[in-house]
Specification:
Elements lengths: L2 E3 L9 H9 L2 E7 L10 H20 L4 E6 L9 H10 L9 E8 L5 H17 L2 E5 L3 H16 L9 E3 L7 H6 L3 E5 L8 H11 L4 E4 L11 H11 L4 H16 L17
Parallel strand pairs: 1-2, 2-3, 3-4, 4-5, 5-6, 6-7, 7-8
Helix pairs in contact: 3-4, 7-8
Bound molecules: zinc ion.
């Protein structure tokens, strides 16, 4: 089955993993901007990173028949540095018309601080002005519930932003309902240890249905699995869910969500056996 991984940090992964993902049916990925594991020393570090994810990474993916899309922003971890965040946000418009740039992301809160909120609001302002889609990171478990509530309050109080063009990611059992009820897309991250296991993600599908759900690996430089979406597909099959339902979640939903971006030029691959 073809699938799309809507949140993965391929700059952290090997070429062999692109090969494995392609063999498992991956036809497209989207790569949000992320913390490098250390704080960058200035705005030029971000320029190099944006060049890498909009230029080199799509070429690396294309060698395996994978279409690569990108989201740009100052990540939640470094958003605490308001001065540097402003420089990065001011540079982003230079990149918004590059092929494959879907919008701003993953913006959001990390420790729910005042500075993070300020940077978040400045991203929202840019998204509203440039009519970009948004991908939002929610904090790690200790700060997740409060951070998700704060995030939803901030986004819904800006009436220029259409919730149908926003995905709120890394949701779990205690945060997913808030997000779906507010009309946003809901991202579920499959991680080996923290966030959701494939089994818990399938439980969420059974509780909330497939509408506006996106399932991703969020694989990065830490413990994570770039083949987590295939693990979700296997768990769905093990519970005897129809192929059409699985396909809706791992393929049609990302197409529908990404399709709202002006730079999403998806080329449908032939289905296996449909020559
Ligand atoms: Zn991420």
């Amino acid at each position: 089955m073809h699938f799309i991984d809507p949140h993965i940090h391929m700059v952290c992964r090997t070429t062999d993993e692109y090969g494995l993902m392609a063999k498992m049916g991956c036809v497209a990925v989207s790569e949000p901007s992320f913390w490098a594991g250390f704080d960058r020393r200035g705005v030029e570090g971000f320029r190099d990173y944006f060049e890498q994810i909009t230029g080199f990474e799509p070429k690396r993916a294309a060698q395996y028949g994978i279409q690569h899309y990108t989201w740009l922003c100052m990540n939640a971890k470094e958003a605490e540095n308001v001065a540097l965040s402003r420089e990065v946000i001011a540079m982003i418009p230079e990149y918004l018309d590059r092929p494959g740039v879907l919008g701003l992301g993953e913006i959001g809160l990390n420790k729910n601080t005042k500075n993070e909120v300020l940077t978040f609001l400045e991203h929202l302002e840019l998204a509203a002005k440039t009519n970009e889609q948004i991908l939002i990171h929610t904090p790690h478990l200790a700060d997740k519930y409060q951070g998700t509530r704060m995030t939803l309050d901030l986004v819904t109080s800006d009436h220029r932003i259409d919730p149908d063009r926003v995905v709120v990611d890394h949701l779990e059992e205690h945060t997913i309902r808030l997000v779906l009820e507010a009309g946003f897309w809901a991202g579920i991250t499959l991680y080996p240890t923290t966030k959701c296991t494939p089994a818990r993600a399938v439980d969420l599908v059974q509780m909330y249905g497939p509408e506006r759900l996106l399932v991703n690996s969020a694989a990065d430089w830490g413990p994570s699995n770039p083949l987590a979406v295939p693990d979700f597909i296997m768990e769905m099959r093990r519970r005897k869910h129809p192929e059409s339902l699985i396909r809706q979640i791992v393929y049609e939903n990302p197409l529908e969500f990404f399709g709202q971006s002006k730079n999403f030029r998806f080329q449908s691959p032939a289905e296996p056996g449909a020559e």
